[in-house]
Amino acid sequence: MISEILGNADTPIMINSFSLIILFIFFFTGQPRKHGARTRQLTYFHYIVILNILLLLADSANWLVEGNPAPAMRAIQVTATTLYYLLDPLPSYFFIRFVDIGLNVPLEKQMRLRNWYLVPVMLHVVMALITPFTGWFFRIDALNVYHRGSLLSVSFFLSFILMIIAAAKVLYRYVRAGKQNTDLAKNVIQYNALLKFTVIPLIGGVIQILDYSVTYVWNATVIALLLLYINSQNTEITTDTLTGVFNRRQAFVYFERFVRERERGGENGTVAVVVLDIDSFKSINDHFGHTSGDEAIIAVARSLETEFSWDDFICRFGGDEFLVITKHGQVKELLSAINRVNSNLAQLFKQKKLLFPLSVSAGYSMLSKKNKTLDQLFQKADTMMFEQKAKLCRRIGDR
């Protein structure tokens, strides 16, 4: 009896079931817990997952009752199909909101754009609600068989226009990042992940436009969500939570990469390691509190990103200590970058953006035949850094 009801629905039901399993894993493992831009991104990701679950359930319900003319089955078909079209534009809406955060669009501008993004969504919702009476998006015949509506192309346009705009935004940033040696280029991996998310569902949408019997656009979205989830997890593993720069586990990976590039003769200068430590950090925590200590660490991270080269490796090595690995190592350039960092930090205090004066002590070392491993270079740079810190302490003591 069940097999007769399923009929040709076996394959899509099975595919939908696998997709739902993946989505439920996302649902139970990706709950946002904190505040801020990163958490708003996770919230939108979570909404996309929930909407995809509902869309796949509605699609599965359609396949289960397709061709069964019983009144109850026809009521289920009409209700599930209407729900499907009501939800159809929402994943695109939440994804473009997700993209705006990833592209660091200012919050005020995000709020303004939100109103424009809602225009195609609300128009589609209104048309979907009227469709059971007008047949605009779909029509269910007396045998309970689904047929495309006269304005289905409008539904496709309204559902995917925001996804297309999001893809265009990311592609523009991606192309710019590939051409410029700036901080923008550091986000190439993230832009690549966002592009995959937009392209895969759009391919599924094109297939659905060409053949209405294929409704795998949301299965394609699950694949895109999986890629986005993997990229997000990789970011969580390799990134310091407080500052957003790399954590120490990536240091050896980038050091080996820089050494290989240097050996191929593709870079000027040599590989160098810089170790930096915040001066009087314990005093900052003791007098201003640990929140101010966190602000100091974040301020140093931002200054390092600003004053060192766009393709240098920067990580929080631990506590208030940072590590920079560069493949453009020249003593003059390193000293200049360190001085600029301290000048930048001094300006923050003068401009009253920090409640306390802030500076770093630093040491550096160059790749050589004697020092050719990261551990050796770090030890040498760390020793120089502590010598600089000791000199600073003596100068303060002499006052």
Describe the overall structure.
Strands 3-5-6-4-7 form a five-stranded mixed sheet, sandwiched between helices. A two-stranded antiparallel ribbon has the order 1-2. It has helices at about 1-5, 10-30, 35-65, 70-85, 90-100, 105-135, 150-180, 190-210, 215-240, 250-265, 280-290, 290-305, 330-350, 375-399, and strands spanning about 140, 145-150, 245, 270-280, 315-320, 320-330, 360-365. The protein has about 400 residues and is α+β, with helices and mostly antiparallel strands. The longest helix has 29 residues, at about 35-65. About 35% of the residues are buried. Helix content is about 65%, strand content about 10%. The radius of gyration is 28 Å and the shape is elongated. The chain folds into two domains: about 1-240, Rhopdopsin 7-helix transmembrane proteins (Up-down Bundle); about 245-399, 2-Layer Sandwich (Alpha-Beta Plaits), CATH 3.30.70.270.
